[in-house]
Amino acid sequence: MSLFTLEGKVALITGSTKGIGRAIAERMAEHGAKVVISSRNQDACDEVAAELTERGFEALPVACNINYPEQLKQIVEATLAKWGRIDTLVCNAALNPYFGPSQNIPDEAFDKVMHANVGSVHRLCQLAIPGMAERGDGAVIIVSSIGGLKGTDALGAYAISKAADMQIARNLAVEWGPKNIRVNCIAPGLIRTDFAKALWENPDIYKATVAKYPLRRIGEPDEIAGAAVYLASAAGTFITGQTLVIDGGGTIAS
Fold this sequence. Notes:
By secondary structure, the chain is α/β, with parallel strands linked by helices. It is built from nine helices and seven strands; from the N terminus they run E-H-E-H-E-H-E-H-E-H-E-H-H-H-E-H. The protein has a seven-stranded parallel β-sheet with strand order 3-2-1-4-5-6-7, with helices on both faces. The N and C termini lie far apart (40 Å).
């Protein structure tokens, strides 16, 4: 058996109609997983799921706004109703409504970041992990950010939320390890996605960023997807509570 096969597995991936989430969904499907495609827009979910189905994969489109606990519950219930299990939970969806000094962030924006980026991960894990534990096997992958490892003068609340995601992974790895549940984070550097467009489309920020990256470029969504397959597959069954940094070397060089 291939170390990287996901045959027979069911993967629920939030924020999977574009960017990193979509790349993860596509690669997991290619490695045999049944995938749940999710974002706030049902039409976008339907479109991506249809494309995967046309390629011979199994995909379930379920719209979900991570700001609403009832919708998080619905996506888990829809997955279980369709396939009866969740083997891999990928918490990828996140938001960042504010760019600038922490001193000036409105309370509403700060609370929104924490509620979505930390709260949704916490709630999805509460909903999905017990079923994994009953079977004695499962993987949770939280897409964090190198922002959670470094200081920042413009992404304060977002960085705090991403550091909190890393701690969620450590806590849940300890809590659920005896049931053979692995919980890990992936911390991307700057990746060419719509979510990070404000950074990589700004010539000054882009130039300053790649100058500090040993590879002298930013990353592509597909360069994160392989790590998610790794952590979800047999190749990653002795890895838990860790944060895998994928940033072109930026963190170690700057």
